[in-house]
Specification:
This protein is mostly helical and 154 residues long. Helix content is 73%, strand content 10%. Strands 1-2 form a two-stranded antiparallel ribbon. Strand 1 and strand 2 form a beta hairpin. Helix 2 crosses helix 6 and helix 4 crosses helix 5. The longest helix is centred in the C-terminal third of the chain and has 25 residues. The radius of gyration is 22 Å and the shape is elongated. 13% of the residues are buried.
């Protein structure tokens, strides 16, 4: 009993346990990501393929070897995923202007459109949830929490 009181006093002095907060944060972020994926338009694109599309959209053309190294996945996995995206017209292979033997993967207009659809669906779903489930005071509190989350990325 005395040990429990001492432990609670210690937590009050140091704040909540960082490991417990980390566990809860990981769980909640994972659940939020899964929820966002669930509302994305069903276009039969794998998570690996979406990852490739997002990187190419943000960073511009890359080779399969570049993507493999950057995402720390096998060359073969990227090759298979990219081939499926090329077949669907979401990516195209273009010659590398610096080395004609190499091919760069370039996101197409259709690939960008797919990413926009996914982003918009997730954003709309999250906006509706925030507006419909949280009070004004809770939204203010959430905004403050976002500032703290950003600090974790620094």
């Amino acid at each position: 009993m005395e040990e429990d009181a001492a432990a609670m006093g210690m937590e009050a002095a140091t704040g909540p346990d960082a490991a417990a907060i980390a566990d809860e944060l990981q769980f909640l972020v994972g659940a939020l990501v899964r929820q966002q994926r669930a509302v994305s338009p069903a276009r039969e694109v794998t998570l690996s393929q979406v990852s490739i599309l997002k990187r190419l959209d943000r960073e511009g053309p890359h080779t399969v070897a570049d993507l493999s190294r950057l995402d720390k996945i096998t060359h073969q996995s990227v090759t298979v995923s990219a081939a499926g995206l090329v077949d669907r017209g979401l990516l195209q292979r273009i010659p590398d202007p610096h080395d004609r033997r190499r091919k760069l993967l370039h996101i197409t207009h259709e690939g960008k459109r797919l990413l926009t659809e996914r982003r918009d669906a997730g954003h709309e779903n999250l906006t509706d949830a925030i507006a419909g489930r949280l009070s004004g005071a809770e939204r203010t509190e959430l905004r403050s929490a976002l500032t703290l989350l950003r600090r974790l990325l620094d």
